[in-house]
Design a protein that fits this description.
The chain is of the alpha/beta class. The protein is 42% helix and 12% strand. The protein contains 14 helices and 11 strands. The chain has a 7-stranded mixed sheet, with helices on both faces. Helix 8 links the parallel strand 2 and strand 3. The longest helix has 35 residues. The relative contact order is 0.15. It binds pyridoxal-5'-phosphate (PLP). The site of pyridoxal-5'-phosphate has 13 residues, from helix 6.
Length: 456
């Protein structure tokens, strides 16, 4: 075992050493990958050392350097050293973090991490936190709590009686919400298409007056899905106004802040999230801006009782808890799960309050540097107000040229950026979310992008 782990640590260290200079998204020969990794299931055991050596070699050509400093696709963070190392220990301890009795240290560590996250993000210290796979399941969990609470107000027990015959809650979403909100609503029986859509402004932030008009037009229980950090523009809904309007109508406010919620961790950007603490639930990711290894999301609910009512797992042989608190499986959709709060704990402890603020501010400054470099070239237009770490770039005011530039950049391998359509116009999407990205990485990437544009 010793030898195997040392050998694996060497492989990991080699990979990380080369990561910054790996081609970022080289074309992958998927048939070659399939041939190298596939074949029939071995009839009998294979030496673990051999399995790991072969696995690392065969997988290598198909590994995207998404953990590296010049990957700007989607919203993808890397792994901080402490987060990655803690993730190894998490797998080594192999605690089932659902139950205190199966992992007292995991439970305590997650509890501490939860408190630190609430503190950093300026959320109510009494909120409950579930460690889930990502923002999708975080929104699912939070909206399950919302469903419980709004139906309970109408005297309906959603968990016991289901939704057949229940008073139908009104669900309001913003026009530019993330698609995973639709998915969460679908999972919850609230339907992705029976929602009411509040218009957004040009940056993708919900218009409070549109929300007010929708809520004024009807009555009964309501859930409002707001957003902190639009996946294209980074725009943050005016949360103070939204909460005030929604609460005036007795509605629950959920905030999808998969990455944008982390702007609250820096005094410089916190004003953008003014009012965030008065919402009722928040979904965020550890694996995006906090640079915790996959998978890592947090479902945060102000009313812990609603959270537990929606997620609790009751069985007579499952007795709980930490100091009289409930077992953690009462806060997540899973029963058994890995202790994914441990890498969050280690990441926060190693960065500290100022380190998290630096990380967030640095990514925003680098996004801004990108926008300035690209936007000053002829024929290149920045489509969004760069308020956070997201930049939308359009070339020659043409969908076709923009698509071509994106394809060339991806084939070149200096950096990687994907495409999107923003309000009917094709654009390159740049997200600066990695802890290790430097100004030099931005300059080198901007040069590569402009080269791809010049040579089209
Ligand atoms: C990424 C993202 C999600 C989904 O998060 P996962 O971690 O992929 O589940 C939801 N909302 C927003 C705004 C996002 O950026």
């Amino acid at each position: 075992m010793d030898e195997l782990l040392r050998q694996t640590a060497d492989l990991a260290a080699d990979f990380l050493r080369q990561l910054p200079e790996r081609p970022v998204g080289p074309p992958v020969d998927s048939a070659g990958l399939q041939a190298a990794l596939g074949g029939p299931l071995p009839d009998g055991p294979v030496d673990p050392g051999q399995v790991i050596t072969d696995l690392a070699a065969a997988a290598d050509p198909g590994i995207v350097a998404s953990a590296g400093p010049r990957y700007f696709g989607f919203v993808i963070g890397g792994s901080t050293p402490a987060g990655l190392a803690a993730d190894w220990l998490t797998a080594t301890w192999d605690a089932n973090a659902g139950m205190y009795v199966a992992g007292p240290s995991a439970a305590v560590i997650e509890n501490v991490a939860a408190g630190w996250v609430l503190d950093l993000l300026g959320l109510p210290p009494t909120a409950s936190v579930g460690f889930v796979t990502g923002a999708t399941m975080a929104s699912f969990t939070c909206l399950a709590a919302a469903r419980h609470a709004v139906l309970a107000k109408s005297g309906w027990d959603a968990e016991r009686d289901g939704l057949f015959g229940a008073p139908a809650p009104r669900v309001v979403i913003g026009a530019e919400r993330h698609v995973t909100i639709d998915v969460a609503l679908r999972y919850l029986g609230l339907g992705s298409d029976r929602v009411l859509v509040a218009e957004s402004d040009q940056q993708g932030a919900m218009l409070p007056e549109a929300l007010r008009a929708i809520l004024d037009a009807g009555e009964g229980p309501a859930i409002v899905c707001a957003q902190a950090g639009n996946v294209n523009t980074g725009a943050i809904d005016p949360l103070a106004e939204i909460c005030e309007i929604a609460h005036g109508h007795g509605a629950w406010v959920h905030v999808d802040g998969a990455f944008g919620l982390w702007a609250a961790a820096t005094p410089a950007l916190r004003p953008l999230l003014d009012g965030v603490a008065s919402a009722d639930s928040w979904a965020t990711d550890g694996h995006k801006w906090l640079n915790v290894p996959y998978d890592s999301g947090l479902a945060i609910v102000a009313d812990a009782q609603a959270h537990v009512a929606a997620m609790c797992l009751a069985a007579s042989y499952l007795i709980g808890g930490l100091d009289g608190q409930l077992d953690a499986f009462n806060l997540t959709p899973e029963s058994s799960r890995r202790a994914r709060g441990i890498p969050i704990y280690a990441t926060l402890r190693s960065l500290g309050r100022s380190g998290v603020a630096d990380l967030v501010e640095r990514c925003c400054a680098l996004a801004n540097r990108f926008a300035v470099r690209l936007g000053s070239a002829d024929g290149v237009e920045i489509l969004n107000d760069v308020v956070l770490n997201q930049v939308l770039v359009r070339f020659a005011d043409s969908d076709e040229v923009t698509r071509e530039v994106i394809a060339r950049v991806q084939a070149d391998g200096t950096c990687w950026a994907g495409g999107t359509t923003w309000q009917g116009r094709g654009a390159m999407r740049i997200s600066v979310s990695n802890w290790s990205t430097t100004e030099a990485d931005i300059d080198r990437s901007a040069d590569a992008i402009l080269r791809a544009y010049d040579r089209r």
